[in-house]
């Protein structure tokens, strides 16, 4: 076989394979975004929702539901999570996905969660509501409050 012909054939085979790889990774990223879509919240919101076995599996037998909120540098935030159906756990994830703060049981001795934190970087944060361990699913109340400084 002619060397020039073989080299040209090899290049023709590489280009479609590269395009296939790009197309596949783009499709996977698109599908991933469709599967994971945190629920948007305002920076001061109170909602009643429900955790179910259709939510994000935690790997510890429980489930989680994510909410996204836009926060500004310097904001003081209080997140209150309560449920009569399961032992609550609240996690605040920074824009880079790292855990910024977490709370299992609030100061009142109950299994409800209460979290206070100061925001050091403007961005979109994720508030993750989940059950502790395998404690279950059910209705919950989530209250997000941007605290105002005392004047």
Structural description of this entry:
There is one protein chain. This protein has 151 residues and is α+β, with helices and mostly antiparallel strands. The protein contains one helix and ten strands, in the order H-E-E-E-E-E-E-E-E-E-E. It has one helix at residues 3-35; strands at 39-40, 45-51, 56-57, 63-71, 76-82, 88-93, 99-103, 113-118, 123-131, 138-147. Strands 1, 3, 4, 6, 7 and 9 form a six-stranded mixed β-sheet that branches. It has a four-stranded antiparallel β-sheet with strand order 2-10-5-8, with no helix packed on it. It starts with a helix and ends with a strand. Mean pLDDT is 80; it is low at 17-33.
**Radius of gyration of CA atoms, rounded to a whole number:** 23 Å
Series of secondary-structure elements, N-terminal to C-terminal? HEEEEEEEEEE
Q: How many runs of DSSP E, i.e. beta strands?
A: 10
Secondary-structure content class: alpha+beta
The portion of residues assigned to helices is 10-25%
Q: What form results from the Cα inertia axes?
A: globular
**Tally of individual helices:** 1
Work out the strand percent: 35-45%
- Major β-sheet annotation: 6 strands, mixed
For the record, give the distance between the C-alpha atoms at the N and C termini, rounded to a whole number: 85 Å
Mean pLDDT across every amino acid position? 80
**Which blocks of ≥5 consecutive residues have pLDDT under 50?**
17-33
């Amino acid at each position: 076989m002619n060397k020039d012909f073989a080299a040209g054939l090899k290049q023709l085979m590489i280009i479609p394979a590269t395009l296939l790889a790009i197309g596949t990774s783009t499709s996977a990223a698109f599908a991933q975004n469709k599967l994971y879509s945190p629920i948007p919240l305002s920076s001061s919101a109170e909602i009643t929702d429900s955790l179910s076995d259709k939510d994000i599996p935690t790997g510890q037998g429980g489930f989680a539901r994510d909410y996204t909120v836009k926060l500004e540098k310097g904001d003081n935030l209080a997140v209150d999570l309560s449920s009569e159906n399961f032992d609550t756990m609240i996690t605040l994830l920074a824009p880079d996905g790292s855990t910024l703060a977490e709370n299992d049981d609030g100061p009142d001795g109950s299994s409800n969660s209460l979290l206070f934190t100061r925001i050091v970087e403007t961005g979109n944060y994720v508030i993750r509501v989940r059950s502790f361990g395998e404690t279950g699913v059910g209705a919950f109340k989530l209250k997000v409050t941007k605290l105002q400084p005392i004047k």
